[in-house]
Amino acid sequence: MPWKLIVFLVALGLVVAFAGFNLGHTSDISFGFYTFAEVPIFISVFVGFFVGCLITLPIAATSRFRAKHRTPKIKKSHGKNNTEATDDFIESDTGHNVP
Hints:
Layout: H1 3-21, E1 26-30, E2 35-40, H2 41-70, H3 82-86, E3 90-91, E4 97-98
Antiparallel strand pairs: 1-2, 3-4
């Protein structure tokens, strides 16, 4: 069964029901310099939700970007295991092993 489609349709039905039940409920919204009169409650709720999503989007994107670039990358030794990789070192004049 297409569960995502069913969940989406149920959520959409709940949103439509919420909007339908609150059509008669209005409020005045004031921004200090301008007042919107008789704004339906469901519109103010949806606008607040979408503004919150827009504010959260850059924060979520930067945190994923940081997490992706903080992950240490493991160098592969092209089919060699660790004991074979140490055999590739040569001894320098100072007596230390160098690649």
